[in-house]
Amino acid sequence: MKDVEWWPFKERADRERLRLGLEKAGVPAVAEVSAESPREVAGATTVDAITAKALFDRGVSFVDVRGRARWILGHIQGAIVLDFKTDFNEASLLAVVGKDQDVVIYCSGAKCLRSSRACAKAVGWGFENVYYLREGFPGWKAAGYPIAVQ
Staple 146 to which of 52, 70, 77, 121, CB 3.0 to 4.6 Å? Predict the structure, then answer.
């Protein structure tokens, strides 16, 4: 139910009704999550928010692999959204960067497996300069770096 905060609703009351309904249905407030994104991805360079900011300042492309619903609520300024489940493929990534160009890939932090999987795919497709921002959007935002909301 904690994830309900990320769901796009025009009216807060609608979100609260959903939360109450889930509670009545017996859905736990916090799901058991055991999966954690790996610290490193073979062929990619893991970076923290400070290093990512230096890449950002150099004009490197950032790709957010979260779903569009989360992206519109907040993302790294200038980032391109390529939803890992529906939009992320070799052709869509090539439309953003060349295989020899730098690219930073991120999602929702250490519990989000999308960015590590996207980095592994990018490396497998022959992208040479893949940066893995493991701490994702939450780490970037916590560092006080530029964000945007659509």
Answer: 77
Does residue 2 have a pLDDT over 80? no
Say how far apart CA 97 and CA 49 lie, in whole Å. 21
Whether residue 104 sits in one domain with residue 88: yes
Question: DSSP character for 144?
Answer: T
Q: How many domains does the chain have?
A: 2
**Single pTM value for the model:** 0.78
Question: What confidence tier does 24 reach under pLDDT thresholds 50, 70, 90?
Answer: confident
Torsion of CA 65, 68, 69, 73, to 10 degrees: 80
How many angstroms separate the CA atoms of 73 and 15, rounded? 15
